[in-house]
Amino acid sequence: MKFYSADVVFPIDTASIPNGLLVTEDDGTIIACLSPDHPDYNLQNAEILAGWLVPGFVNAHCHLELSHLKNKIPQHTGLDGFVQDLMRMNNASDTEKQEAIQAADAEMQANGIVAVGDISNCSDSFALKGISKIQYFTFIERFGFNPAAADIAFESGKTLLEVLKQLPQNNKGNLTPHANYSVSIPLLRKIVHQLEIEKGIFTIHNQESASENEFFQFKTGKMVERFEKMNIPLSHFEASGKSSLEMMLPYFPSKIPLQLVHNTFSSELDIQKAIQQNSNTYFCLCPAANIYIENELPNLEWIRRNTNQITIGTDSLASNSQLDIVEELIILQNANPEIPVNELLKWGTLNGANYLGFSKRFGSFSKGKKPGIFILLDVNSFSYKINSSAKKAIV
Fold this sequence. Notes:
Helix content is 34%, strand content 21%. The chain contains 14 helices and 17 strands. It has helices at residues 78-89, 94-110, 126-129, 150-165, 185-198, 210-218, 222-229, 244-248, 268-277, 287-293, 300-306, 325-335, 341-347, 350-356; strands at 2-9, 17-18, 21-24, 30-34, 47-55, 57-62, 113-120, 135-142, 173-177, 202-206, 258-262, 281-285, 310-312, 373-376, 379-380, 385-386, 391-393.
């Protein structure tokens, strides 16, 4: 057995423990998490650490295959400008892509990330996933706003999913749509039907820009211009007078886990309607990417007032300078200092593990789990504030 004590231990599923004692098997499997008043509390054989002990982090939304675009796309151009730059610059060699994917995976491991919900449009990240120490769940993302392309988009996704399932490890995954504005209703219905049969999980980029809502409400704005430049017909689409989420919700699943990603321009009514339809809805926050692209953050007061099912993602290195959940939490803490650090840490650990179906192993210091153990080094235990993302692995 091994024993670790720190200024504060965060079990995540229970209250934080000042001067707590974490007891593990030699391989990191949790045996117990003890407070100083527990009869078995004994520091005689413990490693005494300065900082906070936390379980490994869960990155609920990432695009590993875009890692080669780090520092190549300008910031604060808005989503429409970002998408145009993404399409223009995504022409790296296979060698460059693989080296960037490997470096991104190594960066996440170094930053204490033990599990990832990763978006894939191709097989570029599959070789790495077959050998990585990180636990991945892969979402095979589908596009196709033209209803006539629904069958092709769906079948090609199923083909890619079969390739994923042949991996020796990290072969868990399913189809999912890209965004409200990039999938037709026929394609969305096909995906949802497949997920409900397979009991999969659903994730979708949601209300990342104001232009998305304008498009659904009035069929005007920058998004219309983008479709025209891409020669995508809009004759089938009619303005609804509703936000994009309110318009699309009736076609979303109501009985399987659902994750809405970004939510930068979601209203409180949007949030309430999503939860009313599916009580197992998670809201994924990617604050660094939101600032990088739109220079805006979601309204956390609205989200927290209606749900505690919040997860954290990094998005891709095309829209972020690092893949570090702690950095994401620091952004949120600085913008919302009233949020307790216990709650923030739960967003970055247990909530993501619950959504991805990895909670039997990851997310908390519960007995029998092997979640990874990390020490956050630069913290203020008096104010319970994270000062930087400095950390190191214990197990």
